[in-house]
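note to self — DONT lose this again. spent like an hour looking for the file last time. sequence + predicted structure for the chain T wanted, 194 res
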Amino acid sequence: MEITTDMIKALRDETSVSIMQCKKALEEAGGDIEKAKVLLRKSSAMIANKKSDRELGAGVAAAYTHAGGAVVGAVVLSCETDFVAKNEEFVKLARDIAMHVAAMAPQFKSREEVQESDLRAAKEVFTKEAANVPDAMREKAIQGKLDSFLADKVLMEQPFVKNGDVTVGELISTGVQKFGEKIEITRFERLSVK
């Protein structure tokens, strides 16, 4: 299948990834835009991993106040240079993540931040809930409930509020690919009246 500039433009508009990477993904996917998106997500994760040891020296703090002023989400999104930190799309990404924090109320940034006491408490609850599950399946059921619990509480694993097809972690990886720098959520906070 011939890869047209309209196809490349459509993929770029949806993903914000560079034109050359969009073209390459479309060629590899045989012109299938959905497959190309998957390929771009995979390459985003690899690129983010390669840049993970770089120094963060700039960034932006963004806040989102939900209608009515009862909930505020705030985030510090860090990057390597002021050039990226002042980029309009980078600032928009930070604001979108702040909106996500306000809407989804994550408690932890990553699984590494979850305390052993929190895991123990959750596991106790899930063990009681799985008491009627047959012995052979009980441990698997408990682990499944624990994984679901963590995916709901860990920011990087939550489905992004504006596009449930990607997690916040995948959104950050795509940002690394797009901006060409290490990007990291260094702090987030959710304030609520209730």
